[in-house]
Every structure is written in C-alpha cells, then in structure tokens.
Structure prediction request, 131 residues.
Amino acid sequence: MAESDDLLYGDFADMGQGPSAREKELEKEVDRLKALLQKAVAQLKKVKATTGSEEGLKNAERMSALEKAVIALKAKNTQLEKNISSLYRTAQAEIERKNKQIDELRRGKREMQGDSDRGDSRKERKQARVE
Prediction:
C-alpha cells in the first residue's frame, strides 16, 4: 500500500482491536440522545394522558410560550435593575454637585457680607475722626 492509502484507511487499522476512543465517545452521545428522546416521549405521553392529545399539545405550546415570556421578562427586569441603579447613582452625584454649589454660593455671600461689614466699620472710623 502507498502512503496515501495509509491515510485513507488509517481509521480501519485497529478494526479487530475493539472500539476506538472516538467510537466510544459517539456511543455515549447516542445513549445520551436516546435518554433525552425517551424522556421527551414520556413527558408527551403524560401530557396526552392527562388532557387529551390536542389539548395536551395546546397546553405544551402555551407552556413553551410562557417559558419564553418568562425568559424575556427576566432579561427586561435585569436591564431595568441596571437602569434604576444607574439613575440612582446619577441622582446622588447631581445632589452632591448641587450641595457643593450651594456651599460655594453661601461662602461667597458670607465673604461679601464680611467685606461690607468691614466697609461699614471703616466708614464709622472715618466719621469718628472727622467729628
């Protein structure tokens, strides 16, 4: 056999030696899928037995739609929680900024009043000297 033939038939080299690792992996996957299928069939039979076939299918469809709605609502709720948190932090920062601005304005007002008080006392001293 040529080297290219070895590449083509390399998978068959260990045929008599039992299943390969890949075959074992595939068998496990097949078993898992069979179990899932059996579980789904059992659930479908249970739904059909309790409510009749058409009604059971309708209920299953409704259930599926409700599950999708719940998932969508959870996602929306998460987004709204993020938005409200962001809004709250923004409001707190704005209040803090306004409080600082108010403090600066009050400080400026006191300084202006202090200057006018000093100005008044200078006028009084000047008048006292004149008299």
